[in-house]
Amino acid sequence: MRTGRRRTTEHRNTLLFVAISLISGFGATALNVTAGVWVLDLSGSSSLAALTGLCLFAPTLLGPALGALVDRLPRRPLIIWTHLLTAGAVLSLLAVRSDAQIWLIYAVMVGYGTSLVLVDAAESALLPAALPPAALGGVNGLRTSAQEGVKLVAPLVGAGLFAWQGGYPVAALTAGALTLAAVLYPLLRIRPLAVPRSDLPGRPEPTPDRKVPGRMLAGLGFLWRHPELRGTVLIGSVTIAMSGLTTAAVYAVVTEDLHQPAAFVGVLSSGQGAGSLLGGLIVGRLLAARGSTVVGALGTVLFAVGTVGRAIPWTPAAVVCSVVVGVGLPWTLVAAVTAIQARTPPALLGRVSGSANTLLFAPVAIATPVGAVLVLPDHRLPLLVAAVLCLGIGLVALRSARRAGQPGPDTRPPDTRTAAQPQERAEDGKSANADTKTVDAAQGDLTVGS
User: Where is this region: Disordered (predicted)?
Assistant: First the structure.
């Protein structure tokens, strides 16, 4: 009877998380596309339009600080209020009337980007409290599929609404999506909060670090000390950066090798989105069977194969290789996120997730302009560099995992099991005691409060 109830709760929470990813992802994608078009329409400057993407991306650098905030506050209320406040900020775009209010679009995009980083860290910390460790990989894969799936539709909807009535209906749509997502979070059923045991032999509880810089850097320190987390985040960071390095090269391949218009990049993007949908559906089983390091390594190897294949001057090959890239790239991200959720103590989940978010996505800001320079001598050079680097790191990771005999994410040493405490105290507004219990018991079955 109890097992059946647990399965029902797991199924319910899974559906809710996937629904939230669909709804919030749809709103974010529609606004992201429309914001640049809106600025271009008001100013006539493509450079000013491109700054909207920078505004959305820049808050990624605040990952460690925002992660520290997540660990100091109850996580589910933080997510809900962040969604609602962001919805209110997006509605302020209804005041935009001319190019004199372009600054407001930029400000909203910075706020939206900040909320995405904050919610991402808080959700990563909330998921282990709502789902068992063995289910994390599958749910992360489904959420990735949902987020990639909306990218096939949301840009068309956003562009269509803008062509119809300008940016106002898109702002209203995004605010509504944020509000609906906030309404769904209270429906999640959270399991009892589990905390690391302080009485494990040889594991004395450390003195809490009350200094703000120390709290923010604790996430980076934890990632560095744990080889599995360090390895999966490194794989994801390099692969995502290489996707930025090859952006300019893909445009050059389309126009110079395939002799297609630049808009054909949209076809390749759709192929990559289809690959991400497929990859997200199967990554959970791979994680359970092979572990996060192996899956991350396989993902970067697939990305390398797809990237070097894009240099083939044949349109069908370019489409197929885009699908391969779409399968591999999300695997590296899902592997890193799942490893963090399964191996990190509750008190550090926000900071570790926020720090990982910065490490995963910040390098792409450097790699993208570097790739734009590398296409000057030969437009295939970024493709070759990215393929060689990803293939090398993938093969090294696979060899290391084979030597270590890495277990799946649901196998834990029995001596590091944790003791449960009622979760309701976290729901009542008490923080997860972010400054304590940073012991190396992260390999235990650790979950997080809401």
Answer: 402-450
